[in-house]
Amino acid sequence: MESIVLRPEKEQRTLWILCWAFWFVIGLVTLIILMLAAGGEAAIVLGVILLAELIAMLLTLIWIPAFHASLEYVIEADTVKAQSGVLWKRYVTIPFTKITNLDITQGPVQRLFNIGTIHVQTAGASGQQTAKAELRMLGISNLQEVKERIMDRIKAFTLSGAVQAKVEPAGQSQLQVLQGILNELVAIHGVLQSKGA
To answer: Which value, to the nearest 10 degrees, does the dihedral of the CA atoms of residues 131, 136, 141, 144 take?
Structure first.
């Protein structure tokens, strides 16, 4: 089966930039109002804070496209993989045998951009009510189609594994396995009785 490689849509990058710009403008207006009201040394301190905010915003505007470009999701025959990170790279591989749930989330602004997030959960995470997904596929435009493709591959993988398990010889029958366990227990019991336990 051929691997499916996905990257987030450019609308995801635009959404991140708009969110940061919104908070930047609020912080900028607040600092300017405080500078005008404060005067004196307080205005100088607020001016330094304003300069730091401008530098942070510039770095953020450089970081967002770089982070967006680092995101890649791969759906293979037996796993889902993701990689991300600008300075620190993160690689996540989830075998189909560990996937317990696939969720789709799409907030109101994401709906405007026609993108959303697919959450891939494993047995360890899905039991908790507010659990964080093991893997999040951000900025996906055709959410339902991608989810169905993953589900189809999981089903195909599970069915092929079940068929192989039935075809392969078991080696020993259940009766032989149980007889072996019984023999071991009898031997352990004999050792314990000889030691006076």
So the answer is: -50
Domain identity same for 38 and 79? no
The answer to whether residue 4 is domain-embedded is no
Residue 179: inside a domain: no
DSSP output for 107-168:
-HHHHHHT-EEEEEEEHHHHTSTTPPPSEEEEEESSHHHHHHHHHHHHHHHHHHHHHHHHHS
Residue whose structure tokens are 């227990």: 185
The tens-digit pLDDT sequence of the chain (197 residues) is: 789 999 999 999 999 999 999 988 898 888 888 878 877 787 788 888 888 888 988 999 999 999 999 999 999 989 999 999 999 999 999 999 889 899 999 999 999 999 999 999 987 654 554 456 789 999 999 999 999 999 999 888 877 765 554 444 555 677 888 888 888 888 888 888 888 75
